[in-house]
Design a protein that fits this description.
Shape: globular
Distance between the termini: 21 Å
Oligomer: single chain
CATH architecture: 3-Layer(aba) Sandwich
CATH class: Alpha Beta
Structural class: alpha/beta
Number of domains: 1
Number of strands: 4
Radius of gyration: 14 Å
Strand order of the largest sheet: 2-1-3-4
């Protein structure tokens, strides 16, 4: 766990951890929402217990990743949460991904493809 919180769980891995932590700062400062940030660190094995314990506490989850949305790790984690904690959820599990488009190799344009902290904030506000 990178940051404890009470209102929503942000689950992430890799560079998206930095995006989620910045989003958590914005949520606290601008919207009084206390986000918990979980860095899964390993995909296989996946630390399901840490993820499930956090979502049981907050009752909401958003998965943040730089992968495209189709068949990503976030899809697997969202499915696991829905299957195991459906009755505990106060909102659907949402995901923030990169744009579903060919990879952009221009640094100036890459910013438009990868998820930004403000994208995470907008998604969180839609379910809080």
């Amino acid at each position: 766990m990178k940051k404890e919180g009470t209102d929503i769980t942000l689950i992430c891995h890799g560079r998206a951890v930095l995006t989620a932590l910045k989003a958590a700062e914005l949520l606290a400062a601008e919207h009084d929402i206390n986000a918990e940030v979980i860095d899964i660190r390993s995909i296989r094995p996946l630390d399901e217990e840490t993820i499930l314990a956090s979502v049981r506490k907050t009752h909401r989850a958003v998965y943040v990743e730089e992968n495209k949305p189709f068949c990503g790790i976030g899809a697997q984690v969202a499915s696991m949460i829905q299957e195991k904690l459906f009755d505990e959820l106060d909102a659907p599990v949402l995901r923030v991904n990169s744009l579903d488009a060919p990879a952009i190799y221009s640094p100036k344009l890459e910013v438009l493809q990868l998820p930004r902290p403000t994208d995470v904030v907008a998604k969180v506000l839609s379910i809080c």
